[in-house]
Here is the input.
Amino acid sequence: MKSNYCLYIFFLFFIISVAAAPESYAQVPEKTVITGTVTDAKTGEPLYGTNVVMEKSTIGTITDLKGKYRIETSKPSANIIFSFIGYDSQIHKVIRGKSQTIDVKMNLSSIAMEGVVIKPARRSYKNKNNPAVELIDKVIENKDNNRKERFDFLQFRQYEKVQFAFSNVSDKFEQNGLFKKYHFIFDNIDTTKRIGNKILPFFIREDMSDHYYRKDPEAKKEITLASKTINLNEYLDNKGVSANLDYLYQNINIYDNEILFLTNKFLSPIAKSAPTFYRYYIIDTLLVSNQKCIRLFFEPRNKSDFLFHGYLYITQDTSYAIRKIDIGINKNTNIDWVQNISATQDFENYGEYGWLLSKEEIAIDFGIVKNTLGLYGQRTLSYNNYRINDPIDPKVFSGPEKIDNTDPTLDNSKYLTKSRPIPLTRTENGIYLIVDSLNKVPTFKRQMNIVMLLTTNFLNLGKIELGPDVSFYSFNSVEGSRVRFGGRTTPKFSKKINFDGYLAYGIKDNKFKYNAGVTYSFTPRTIYQFPVKSLRLSYMSDTKIPGQEFQFSEADNIFMSLKRGVDDKFFFNNTFSVEFLNEFKNHFSYSLGYSYTRQSPYGNLYFNKEDYLTGYNSTNHINISELSLGLRYAKNETFYQGKIYRYPFPSKHPTIQLKIAGGSDLIGNDYDYLRLQTNISRRFYFSVVGYADISLEAGRIFGKVSYPLLFIHRANQSYSYQRDSYNLMNFLEFVSDKYAALNIDYSFNGFIFNKIPLLKKLKLREVVTLKALYGGLDRSNNPEFQSDLFKFPVDANGVPLTNTLERKPYVEASIGVSNLFRIFRVDLIRRLTYVNLPNVSTTGIRIQFRFDI
Here is the structure.
């Protein structure tokens, strides 16, 4: 996934900084720790997947592949219950406040249901003549009659509560010197019902929204009525955090064939193809709120595939509807930073309309190492006020799919207090109060500024912030060591006006470079809050490498300084620009701009119209005066707003961009031309076999221009993998006035590696890419046929370094491994065409920082 690096790293650094701080000690509170092994009483084989639960609670776990389990809790029940498919359940007493081992030997049993006796066949599972599979086939056969999308119209109100907390909070953590000035936060410590250990809540968000659905033509609408979250706007993009949580905690529709969950697609246990990938076992029949149900256990055939396991409660009638689910994900599934997952859903009977979702809870325990300090996230949803098949005014569905109708002038707290179907607990109420108190503690602010510097590369000094720190020093072959100092104002200075800039100096070329800009917001919001409506003016005097474009990184980043091959041909641009940007709530935006650039060759680059060696008829600069229009549409796009860039989350909808630019001697341009570029990109999911990020791009230039104004195709000579660049192409190696490009980045999500015994424990993931670029150059833009155009760059021996793509496409492909040490992706890249050109690398290794779940 394209993860929100800033948010994840923010939490990661916070945990590491706390864990590494000086410790003080106190008496450890009493805990009950229960460990043991569960085996078959007759064969002695370990029973993987045994349900181990504290009596009259939901604190529990399941046994691993070796039949082992562990429960640690400060609030144990008197008894612990062991249950497994086809075995007699057992109850054992628990000694409170002690560490103890309870080994269990389970005895086989027979389960009778409606006259049919079912005996488990653990060693020879088959779908044929299997009552559990016959039952799930009935569920699959009837699922279109049970899903909510069967109605012509549907309305309901949704209440959502999302919480985050530090989990596995130990006494050492509580007594840590880091919290000396605000130890009051531990007054709000709690024990989660899901994972049974002490947690310290620090984040909460609540939303109340109305939802509308129309079957034909299909349309959806979500209108947010009230929203409340903790106040950490100074450090985090709260809307971005909410969007990221929504992406992680996607709604689970058990009736869908595929379910997007934790950034990956999981195959539903009642998908049409599910019996091929899952095993099913009937456990028993029982009453769930006076409804007689069949409890069915399911598990993956391959424990490492992206599949669920758990229980389905199926109504024991002809509807074969889902009454309840209680599911999780196997620990062998290739998901990182997650120690435990559980999800429950309850459905309510609406008579002739069947069963509709009434409550949902998803709990995830994140952590670097099991049973150490981590993050616990819980999402609770309540659905009520259903209106079924009441016609909905078509006007409701106009505009964007999601609308925020919250009134900033009203007190959302009062509205939520009256409307929320689930009252907040003392601990949950305390989160709001504690965060407000923390924001007033100077020590907390100083510590958070350090965390922000590490995660965002900016140092907040109140009304201004300095950075990015990774650009304070860099180097290249033309400027040598380059030092840069810069920053910008913050919303504390002004919400309407933002100033930014930097001053840089090259030690080798002894030259200053600089950039200064001002942006004015036409909305009451800052320019970092969507939707933006702004006007920006800037002036820059600096170098630029032709064809170098980094994604989510600046060019003079210290980590991008080390490059392969020759890198000595620069442009020096003196550019004045003005741009008006207007974004709409439906995520359509346009930008209107004008820029004037006096561009000069720099380093070992020259603008020559004749022989390079004699330097005859050379030009020391060109004038580029250009008007531009940019259009962009990304339906329902969500993103995290960082300090410089937006980090979008993948979506099922494509992102479409169109750029139009042109210049004329009427506005002071040395050339007359019109340049068009378009790009369409989207992520495609393929269930258990991963996903593909695919982009299509094309461009065309009308008019006669020299090579600096042609499409100089994106190249990368750094050792960092760049998704949108050609990683084995040299700078200025290829130019075109028309082109089409295809970029496929496919991640198998460990589908292959997970089936290799020695590799699956490493949780590595396979990646393959293909990048193809085909272009051309009209005779009117080719300096070989036009003496008034600049000659293509050559090396010291007069060998041309810049080429066209007339004969065949440029193609490079790679195989790679992601999730290396959980944070890196490494690609082995092979250049497949134009391998005989001078100074090219046909094979290379590139590394990318990639923080995935």
Summary: The chain has three domains: 5-26+146-262+335-438, 32-109, 457-849. DSSP finds nine helices and 48 strands in the chain. Residues 5-26+146-262+335-438 form one domain. The first strand starts at residue 32 and ends at 40.
